[in-house]
Amino acid sequence: RDGLAVSGEFIPYGRQIIEDDDVAAVVSVLRGDWLTTGPTVVAFEEEFAAFVEAPHAVAVSSGTAALHLSALAADLGPGDEVIVPALTFVASANAARYVGATVVFADVDPRTWLIDLDSVRELITDRTKAIVGVDYAGAPCDWPALRGIADAHELVLIEDAAHAPGATINSRPVGSIADFTCFSFHPVKHLTTAEGGMVTTTTVERAARLRSLRGHGIANDFRARESAGTWEYDQRELGYNYRLPDTACALGLSQLHKQPRWLARRREIARRYDQAFSGMPHIETQVVPEGRESAWHLYPVRITAPDAAEARARAFSHMREAGIGVNVHYRPVYLNSYYRDLGYPEGLCPEAEAIYSGLLSLPMWPGLTETQQDRVVSTLEAALRG
Ligand SMILES: *Cc1c(COP(=O)(O)O)cnc(C)c1O
Known about the structure:
Elements: H1 20-30, H2 39-51, E1 56-60, H3 63-73, E2 81-85, H4 91-98, E3 102-106, H5 117-123, E4 128-134, H6 143-152, E5 156-160, E6 168-169, E7 172-173, E8 180-184, E9 197-201, H7 204-214, H8 222-228, H9 246-256, H10 259-277, E10 283-285, E11 292-293, E12 299-303, H11 308-321, H12 337-341, H13 350-358, E13 359-362, H14 370-385
Parallel strand pairs: 2-3, 2-4, 4-5, 5-8
Antiparallel strand pairs: 1-9, 6-7, 6-11, 8-9, 10-12, 12-13
Helix pairs in contact: 1-9, 2-9, 3-4, 3-7, 11-14
Bound molecules: pyridoxal-5'-phosphate.
Pyridoxal-5'-phosphate (PLP) binds next to α3 and α4.
């Protein structure tokens, strides 16, 4: 990576921020009695639930585990169809595959780059059981409308909010709306536990089911047995070990306290990019509709030059050579070999494919300085001029 930097330091598209108090929080748990399922898990779950105004939060070992457990707790299985937007990370669709369900890819809206409601309505059949909405780049989907569609057809609503902790729609935080909302704490996301995730949910029953599935399908953990004075446990269903340890939760809790500050910084960076690109030829940016506040995990731009794919490829290498860590999020999921082999054809979601051909994610993380940001903008401008 360093070898690519020819002018100044390398600017990554995103990265974690670990401060002294984060380190101290982890060390303090390491020196305590609980390394894995202890009081810090509960504290992290409670504070995270409060942050997104959700009734319940269940900490798990990754964002992918969060999606898998949501699919299980929603009772999805073979024969069921699950609608997933094409423009997302593969994990959003894989969750349905883990439980043997069929993925039906919805196209995205050409302005918001989020799941297209007309596409969703057209794809609903007798077999549809769930809709997975993805808050791409941090911008919330139209959740009230998706709720309406889901209720009319008795579907489960799963939200992949890996990009969106702190995002709101009509002042309601994501995490409090869908039946299951999944978050990721991978280092490149808003807050990190190294690996980790969270599911927030709306009912006690769903939270209990998620907790059971997180721990082998055993309803009570050993502390509950201890306090009841019994050694007995009963595995009632097939669960997993998807626990998030106390050590990781200590890091997550410490990072969570910084979210308001970091979110404000991400929004400021997004505003500066928006200003820089408004009116710049051959560049489109994501439209965030009135009433919605993005959490800005990514700042993707769409290059709209006549041959977008070629212009994007040129811009990508130009910026990498200039030490700017641009990336592409994402190739439509069904264009991956695994999904191609399942029979999904090219051309399935034309908007997602057209957007993808010009996509480029620019550096977006709270540690990005204004000087670095200006360098990103001028380098992209120069790259597009050719
Ligand atoms: C990061 C991410 C995930 C998976 O999260 P992990 O914690 O890496 O398992 C799922 N969906 C989206 C959209 C993501 O960006």
